[in-house]
Amino acid sequence: MPRQVEIVGKFLGEKIAFENGETRTIIALIAPEDGGAEITIKGEAAAGELKPGIEYRFYGHKVNHWKHGEQFAFASYVVQEPATSEGVVAYLQQCEGIGPATAWAMWEEFGPRAVEVLRSDPTAVASRIHRFSLEKARKASDFLSAFASVERAKIDLIGLLNGRGFPKKTIERAIQTWGSAAAGIIKRDPHYLMRFRGCGFLGTDKMYCEIGRPPGRLKRQALCAWHAIARDRDGHTWFPLQQGHQAIRASIAGADPRPEKAMELAVRSE
Prior knowledge:
- This protein is an alpha+beta fold and 270 residues long.
- It is built from 11 helices and 5 strands, in the order E-E-E-E-E-H-H-H-H-H-H-H-H-H-H-H.
């Protein structure tokens, strides 16, 4: 699997979009932040999720298409908080109650700090922007604060899960399930990822060990026993207790195996 890299660019719009079941793949154009030639990107995105004029940080790798030439295949992306006038104005218009005129007024008043000021001090913005009520300012502030925390979580998850072979949708599903706390929850125990399709015990357990979690934890021992039994495809309804014990000792090795207590935990946890 190619090593992921990142590119930053302003989304210009979709060229093609095609759907296959729940998956929607787009081919689109971005203008890179360095001012170079437009870049063709390809990846999964819901309709309207990527907004023209907004700058994004895309994570993926370059590919060469036999017909369309070089493309950047992205696996995930986050919003890049903008500094240019056009970027700030487009970014602010994601908030309910902020149209182009209001967004430009905020830029004129606060410049590149407009997003930061609205997020942290909605009262100041409402007092200085004509016809922008305190209620609207507070709603926009709440939206931007929540948006920023989720974006930070997304960046953390990209760093945490990059190159580990989990499905592309894992980051999105983790944020839908745990919100901005997702990265912290997974760092504490990657086995939580097993609730998502394509995240099995072997992959999550490998990650668990690689990030330095305690190998002898009782919950992990119980999962090792469960996995050894679950992968048996001989059609048995009952399994000897010793089979679970052997799996635990083989997987835990010198990290204080406690097969009896682990099996008790597995049974209690169903």
